[in-house]
Design a protein that fits this description.
Elements: H1 7-10, E1 13-16, H2 32-40, H3 43-47, E2 51-54, H4 82-94, E3 98-103, H5 113-120, E4 132-133, E5 156-159, E6 164-167, H6 182-198, E7 202-205, H7 247-260, E8 268-271, H8 277-280, E9 294-295, H9 307-321, E10 327-329, H10 338-341, H11 346-358, E11 362-366, H12 398-401, H13 442-447, H14 452-465, H15 467-471, E12 473-477, E13 484-491, E14 494-501, E15 507-510, E16 516-521, E17 534-537, E18 542-547
Parallel strand pairs: 1-2, 1-11, 2-3, 3-7, 7-8, 8-9, 10-11
Antiparallel strand pairs: 4-6, 5-6, 12-13, 13-14, 14-18, 15-17, 16-18
Bound molecules: 1-deoxynojirimycin (NOJ).
């Protein structure tokens, strides 16, 4: 690669979930000015990230906390005004930070004026903007087919007034748009152009694999699988043959890329879809035409702590995506925080962060990971997430999948009960603050060299300074130990090796590059350590060696 390498291949993205980041108005809800403050006080510019992904900031009844949009071209008044947004974008750009927005193309809120109009009558001019079907059976009260919603239950909801069913691949409050209707397509493209014209640097595309469904509404085949994995998409005893990754969805990705490629400077599209690399690869496009720039590979989000398994994921991604650029993450606003998945073990979290930030691909980190925020504990009465409230046969199964725990307010300091989330110390935030704010907060960690925050900052700094870590080719190395994951990164004559010890005891391995210096260790950060023919690693230690 050269200086022409696109920015999004080299960048580290940081996800902000605005509702839980920083509240400037004392209503217990994070907002845009709260984020601006974190640019102004240099927290974000000094972190070492290059781009921010903002979860949805548009008007919304907040039944799915912004993923149920009721106006694609405005700002949710709870979060601020368009002027605040413009200022945020300008300040971010002035500080060399890109901003990408979340774009939900699959559905709107059921309270979007388009849907209100669409459901008002069968002859509404917007009826065809959503996917309506007659029910089955003699009294037409059975869903049109067997399609299941991602969160379980039928993907069809009956509208009693007009006696037809509408499709919702996610929750009933999120009716699917009909992308075969050209007016819908035009409106959604206009919405994206609106933000691109303002200068946003791209979009994260919510559940992009579900945008189109089979035009003939054929039943999905049965399956034995309850949950999808990277090797198959089947879930809830069904194969999503007619509801996911349809040919038109792939074509749409190509068209979306053509749209953003009209803009300079270059913009980025990051797709969210389920499944391993073989399913994700078509969304990237083909030899003739490019599709999405990046697609999240979620393999790491449900991986056990095993060197071999991580190695296999990396190899799978390399061989399947070929010349397309991978995109990895450990956590986001839907997933149990990575550190908590591994028993709140800080050393393991550091090791895996070193992995994320040194393998080939664009890494996404989630707000709070940089201070080691743990998964929050949410009492039964505190549940806010609609998924957390789901019941099956009256049983509160949603409690096992609820996403509030990874969305608890950001912990800025320990001087007030709201951890500095709101300026007024008496304000109670929308979700409970974790009880560990005394040990886990930005203010405290700023002062300690050994903190998670300083670990992140030093590692991010090294990555920014070291071009081969951003762009180099990756080759997995065999260092004769099952508990060790090692790989080299090479770019022209620059070369280095990353060695990760996954075992809870020390480990000695042969140094693969003798003429090397240690440039980073998860345990000692950038302090120097003598490197000999044998590299001695502490339990869960990871190191970066650079060829001299
Ligand atoms: C994926 C988003 O990440 C999640 O938060 C949301 O609930 C669903 N898509 C539906 O939009």
């Amino acid at each position: 690669m050269s200086t022409q390498t696109p920015w999004w291949k080299k960048a580290v993205f940081y996800q902000i979930y605005p509702r839980s980041y920083s509240d400037s108005t004392n209503n217990g809800i994070g907002d845009l000015r709260g984020i601006i403050q974190k640019i102004e006080n240099n927290y974000l510019p000094k972190l070492g990230i290059n781009a921010i992904w903002l979860s949805p900031i548009y008007p919304s009844p907040q039944e799915d906390f912004g993923y149920d949009i009721s106006d694609f071209m405005s700002i949710n008044p709870e979060y601020g005004t368009m002027r605040d947004f413009d200022e945020l974008l300008e300040q971010a750009h002035d500080n060399n930070l890109k901003i990408i927005l979340d774009m939900v193309l699959n559905h709107t809120s059921h309270r979007h004026p388009w849907f209100i109009e669409s459901r008002s009558s069968r002859t509404s001019p917007k009826r065809d903007w959503y996917i309506w079907q007659k029910g089955k059976g003699t009294n037409v009260k059975k869903p049109p087919n067997n399609w299941k919603a991602i969160m379980g239950g039928s993907a069809w909801e009956r509208d009693e007034e007009t006696e037809e069913y509408y499709l919702h691949q996610f929750l009933p409050c999120q009716p699917d748009l009909n992308w075969r209707n050209l007016e819908v397509k035009e409106m959604m493209f206009d919405s994206m152009k609106f933000w691109l014209d303002k200068g946003v640097d791209g979009f994260r595309l919510d559940i992009i694999h579900t945008v189109f469904e089979d035009v003939e509404f054929r039943d999905n085949p049965r399956s034995f699988h309850l949950f999808s994995s990277h090797s198959h998409l089947d879930s809830l005893l069904q194969k999503p043959t007619y509801t996911q990754f349809q040919k038109e969805t792939i074509d749409l990705c190509l068209e979306l890329r053509s749209l953003v490629d009209e803009y300079t400077p270059e913009r980025v599209l990051v797709g969210e879809a389920t499944g391993g690399p073989k399913f994700l690869s078509p969304l990237y496009g083909n030899q003739k035409q490019l599709g999405l720039n990046l697609v999240f590979d979620f393999q790491f989000t449900n991986q056990s702590f095993s060197a071999k398994k991580f190695q296999n994921s990396i190899l799978d991604s390399q061989s399947t995506l070929n010349h397309f650029w991978p995109c990895f993450t450990f956590s986001n606003h839907d997933i149990v925080r990575m550190i908590s998945r591994f028993g709140n073990n800080r050393q393991k979290a550091r090791l895996l962060t070193l992995l994320l930030l040194t393998i080939k691909g664009t890494p996404f980190i989630y707000q709070g990971e940089e201070i080691g925020m743990l998964q929050g504990k949410i009492g039964n009465k505190q549940v806010k997430d609609p998924v957390g409230k789901l019941k099956v046969w009256g049983l509160p199964v949603g409690r096992f999948f609820g996403r509030d725990g990874c969305r608890t307010p950001f912990q800025w300091n320990s001087s007030t009960i709201n951890a500095g989330f709101s300026p007024d110390p008496m304000v109670i935030p929308w979700l409970p603050i974790s009880s560990n704010i005394q040990e886990i907060n930005v203010e405290l960690q700023h002062q300690s060299k050994k903190s998670m925050l300083n670990f992140y900052k030093e590692l991010l700094h090294i990555r920014q300074e070291t071009v081969w870590l951003q762009e180099g080719d990756l080759e997995v190395l065999d260092l004769q130990s099952d508990q060790c994951l090692a790989y080299s990164r090479t770019m022209d004559t620059d070369h280095g090796v990353i060695i990760l010890n996954f075992q809870k005891g020390p480990l000695n391995v042969i140094n693969p590059i003798l003429e090397s210096s240690l440039i980073f260790s998860t345990h000692t950060l950038t302090q120097t350590k003598v490197i000999t023919e044998v590299v001695s690693l502490e339990p869960f230690e990871g190191v970066i060696l650079q060829k001299k």
